[in-house]
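Re: the multi-chain job from yesterday

Posting the exact lines I submitted so nobody has to dig through the queue logs.
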Amino acid sequence: MNTFANNAIVRLEDVHLSFGQTEVLKGIDLTVNKGDAVSIIGPSGSGKSTILRCINALVAPQSGRITVGGTRVDQLTKESERIALRKRVGIVFQQYNLFPHLTVLDNIVLAPTRILGVDRREAEKLARHLLEKVRLVEKANAYPGQLSGGQQQRVAIARALAMKPELVLFDEVTSALDPETVGEVLWVIRDLVRDGMTSILVTHEMRFAEEISDTVVFTENGRVVDRGSPEQIFRNPDNPRVRQFVSGLSGHNAMRDGEGI
Amino acid sequence: MQDMNLTDLFVSLTDKVGLNYQFLATGYEAQIWRDGFVTTLYLVVLLIPVSLIFGLLFAACLTSGRLWLSAPVRAFVEITRNTPTLVQLMFSFLVLNTFVSNLVGGAQNNPLTPFFWVVAVVGLHIAALHAEAIRAGIEAVPASTVEAARGIGFNQLQILRYVEVPLAFRASLPAIVNNLINLVKLTTVGNAIAVSEITYASIMVWTQRDNVVELMIVILAFFSLINLIVARVGLWVERKLAVPGYGL
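And the result, structure tokens for all chains:
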């Protein structure tokens, strides 16, 4: 990992975070290189989503260093500095969280025009290009409520990409979807990763994580238990806990395979 | 001339069914009555925007998260919605207005008219009700939607403007329309401090003419018509803003 250190775009060092009395992160170390896809896996409640929220300053850790593309996130004190960071880091949520009162096109155009000050016509051009990428051009004028979960999630990805982020965080983006639409969302993410978009994914899609990741990180109880190549984590896990987790999930994965990812 | 003929025709026709509208043919009382309608309409047209502007302002204060903004507004909202508007109006006119008069050196220098006090008291009273409706609407915007907006890079004011207010306004619109219907009816409290809106003007007429029923019929029809229009416009706006596939 150290050999690629100069190429690191995200680095977390000994990050500790508590919500009140609950210790959520107990010393997280994580390095993500530019252009890499890193998957964070592990049982629910292990702090995976919180790691992502630390990276774009939606929550602040009590201690530890977080560096994103040269910015010391843990040292940001002003909201304006956090906003400047969030413009560079896209995030896609489990529940899509589109703006329900805006059309698909307006959902994508809102941030570039209002935050970056991009000309409306130019923003629309980019939005249509992104909709092509996520295969939803024909839904440009639909409202989120008229779309399936998978379609909404693809719009949410396009919305994040419209800000031309340096990296994108995916927070269990397929967990709320019915099995039939999971595939179409994973297809879009796979394309992004192949295009070299730096991506950090919190996911329960083990088969997918194995396929697209450069590195897989296994977390439990707020700690990184193991990390390595997908091959290492999924095929030859050294760590007994990882072995137990992966083998327990294999049946679930087999079922998903059948759904045609 | 045409008008006079129509009025005469109306008076004679209604007289045949036993309704006494003879005052309409006179100059003075008919004028008072007509002015009553105009004053009521004037109050309504003025009060609707006043109540909405202050309602939005109050709601912004209530949800600002800043105690020095929210606490005074919260206190005002509680007082105004828990006490009778008539009492508020009398208090304002008899106490606050007198206070102002003393400050400026006598009632003759006081620019504040009874009409002003009706607009202030009724407008702020309904604004308090709007504020509660809008506040509830803002708080009903899912935390996850707000988090997504923050995650994209919107600041607090942009989130309010582009996400929370548009959603909150849709959610609170039915309650706001109800408040406006109440507002129309509340204009009649002006009669307590001699603002010659329609009920005050009617009392002036019927004490002379003994035609309470005749005037009541018209007053009730008049308010029904205004509120029918308010409700219709409200419904139209609601439909105009309706989002396909979304519950609000």
